[in-house]
Amino acid sequence: MQWIMKTFQELTNEELYGILKVRVDVFVVEQKCAYPEIDNYDQFSLHYFLKIDNEIAAYARILPKGTKYKEEASIGRVLVVEKYRHKGYARELLNQIITFVREEWKEQRIKIQAQQYLKSFYASFGFHAVSVGYIEDGIPHIDMNWICR
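The line above is the sequence of GNAT family N-acetyltransferase; the predicted structure tokens follow.
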């Protein structure tokens, strides 16, 4: 089991392919949602993922302030592959990313677009809703912010 963080330029072809595959498997196939998965943010993101037995088990991308949002860093494409769910990897992933953004980037705010059914999960990390619910790509979402206290 190994947690890995890389820029887009540092990813190997195999790693990039694996990341795109698990993102499509979860967000497009599993959630039955056709949307533009390749969105031109990957090139500016840090890619944080867990490999278990040479498979990507969990993943998220971290976007610096000034990319997706002008004033906040952002976390997106958060996932755990189905066979690795309910083992605490999502919680570990978010804890490590929040710590990284706060300590390494010295950012005090993170903004996310959360799927609405995960609102309480993100709230458990200190995120709070800053929008009413809305539909994006056919799925209920809510904007949430985390502010360092």
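Note on the example: DSSP finds three helices and eight strands in the chain. The radius of gyration is 15 Å.
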